[in-house]
Predict the structure.
Amino acid sequence: MAESVTIARPYADAAFRIAQETGAQGIWSARLQRLALIAQDGDMASVMGNPRLSAEQVADLLISLSEDSDVTLGSFIRTLAENRRLALLPEISRLFELAKSQEEGVKEAVVHSAFPIDDSQVAALLQQLEPRFGTRLTARVVIDPSLIGGVKIAVGDQVLDASVRGKLDSMAVALNN
């Protein structure tokens, strides 16, 4: 995962700079989200990995599926195709959204939960967390059964651990000391 983030970051940064220069962050956000969905499709993944197809053919297919005739977007897709980086589109989109959120003063809260939580619970949690972190937050929920119960929340480099696993680990440390 760390490797894909490292490889995807320059592409996401370039897309964000292009979007900033033209004042089209929202448009590029939607474009990249659409491209990420297309790239995640199983059939498209097979096409992107097919050695019989040239990078140009794959790029042309992706451009036609994106239903966007923007020349800059086409160049961006062609660059990704030539470098065999089309599979990174979901990660590029995610990093673009992070940069966009940071520009807007919004941070991402990664909520690790032992069980699935619904949108109303996430909204209530964010409402409680925003004053603590002093910023608007968006949530990305990650299911982690090893937590046993509760949640663990990471915002940037700050972590709030209200999980059963965290409490058990704290108790174990206290008992060993």
Summary: Helices lie at 2-22, 25-40, 42-48, 55-66, 71-82, 89-103, 119-133, 164-176. Residues 2-101 form a domain with the Peroxidase; domain 1 fold (CATH 1.10.520.20).
